[in-house]
Amino acid sequence: MSFGLSSHLVLPQRLTPALMNTLASSGARQIEIFAARHHFDYTDRHAVREMANWFGSNDMAASLHMPLFSPEDGGDWSRHTAPTLNLISTNKGDRILAMDETKRALEAAEQVPFTAAVIHLGLGDEQWSTRAIDDSLTAIEHLKAFAGPLGVQLLLENLNNAVATPEHLVEIVKIGHFDSVGFCLDLGHAHLQGMDHESGKSAIAKAFATFGDRLRELHVHDNKGMRDEHLWPGEGSIDWAEVSMLTKAATPPLVSVLELSHEFGFDADAAVKQVRAAIDRLSE
Fold it and tell me: pLDDT digit string (tens) for 4-13?
C-alpha cells in the first residue's frame, strides 16, 4: 500500500521548502499540494520555481488538489472559509472565474512534476440535472485538453452533492468518453452516506465497486458519520479493516493520501509524528 500526504494538514501556513521537508519526513511517498493562494501561490513565479526545485531535489511524487477558493478569499482566509469556486455554477461568470483559476493552478505543472490533479464538480447544494451534466462535460473537456499536454491526469472526487456521487461521476465520464480521466475516492465523504440499503454494503464499499479500475487515489480521513471533519483515522467510525481489505484488492494499486484537518498555530513536527503513526497503523 502506497501512502501520500496532503498539504491540507498545514493549509493555514505558506508552503515553504522547510515545511515540505517536514511533510516528507512523515514517510509518505507522495505529497498532494493544496492549491490555495495563501498556501501555495501558483500565480507567483518564485513560489512555483521554489516548489519545482524542491521536488527536483527529493524522491517524492507530486499531485495537485485544484483550487476551491476564489482569489478574493486569499486575504481573509480562515479554516471556516467555505469553498466558493464552482466549475458548474448556474452563473456563467462564476463558471468562467472557476475555470480561469483552475487553469492558473494547472500551469504550475509546466515546472512542478504533478502527475495528477483532483477536481471538484459543484458545491454542497448542487443538483443533478441536464444542465449540470452539460456544464460538467464542458469543464472536464476544457481541463483535460489543458492538463493532457502537461502530463497531468484529472481525477474526479466524490462530494456530498447530487452531481459528484460515484454513480453520477462514472455516468459523466461515460457520456463524455473521457478515457483518460480517473477518480479519487474520498473516504470521509463516502462514509457520510452511511449504508447502501439496496446492496447491503457500506457506501465506501459500493464506491470502490462503482469506480472500479478507474480509481487511482484515496483521500484518507475519518468522521463520525455526521459531518466532514477530516479526523485522524480511528477517531471516527469508518471501518478501517474494511478499507484495508478493499484497498489491497484494488487494481491498479492505489495511493492513499492522508487529507487531515488543519489547525492554526499547531506544531507541524508533532503533527507529522502523528502521520507516521497513522501510516504504520493503516499499513498493519
Answer: 999 999 999 9
Residues forming a β-bridge with 63? 32
134: Cα within 13 Å, side-chain hemisphere: 5
Which contacts qualify for 192-195: CB closer than 8 Å, 24 or more apart? 192/160, 192/223, 192/225, 192/226, 192/227, 192/228, 193/160, 194/225
C-alpha dist (Å) from residue 63 to 15, 31, 80, 105, 278: 15, 6, 25, 12, 21
d(CA 147, CA 107): 8
pLDDT digits (tens, 9 = 90+) for 214-223: 999 999 999 9
Q: CA nearest 66: which of 85, 44, 46?
A: 85
From the options 3.10.450.50, 3.40.630.30, 3.20.20.150, 3.30.450.20, give the CATH code of 2-283. Answer: 3.20.20.150
Question: How high is the pLDDT of residue 269?
Answer: 85
Q: What are the domain boundaries of the chain?
A: 2-283
Residues linked to residue 196 through DSSP beta bridges, in sequence order: 201
More confident position, 83 or 144: 144
Q: What nine digits make up the cell of 204?
A: 465506501
Q: Provide mean pLDDT across the span 267-284.
A: 89
